[in-house]
Amino acid sequence: MSEIDPLVIAFAGLHMQLSRTLDRRMAKEGASLARTKMLLCIQKLGPLRATDIAEYLGQSPRTVTEAIDGLERDGLVERKPDPSDRRAKLIEITPNGIEAVERTEPVRRQIVDQVFGTLLPEERESFGAILEKLSRSLSE
Fold it and tell me: Which of 46, 55, 71, 82 has its CA 20 to 30 A from that of 130?
């Protein structure tokens, strides 16, 4: 094991713990983390094709289509004809979908604030710079 491995393990563990906590607590309010991210995407960007959602979220089209099926089944989104291409469908958030986001987003915000609020302002700045540096190393 290299001296870097404990950092990687700790970072991955934190990410997994944060994701699971967010998912569990947000699901109690009506939409999991993944569902809320998709609903927010549709709400912010307006009616979109499934392929556009997949590209925006960095997910496979099949994964997004399956998620949309579930959201539609639960009345959180609707598929509507695309006026510019009658073969395509646009995904639109419903009033129930907007309500789900309004219930879950404060939970997400509270958990994120709880976790990252433990850092002092200068620690947040340093952490942000470190994350940026790591991200840049992957794109080089």
Answer: 55
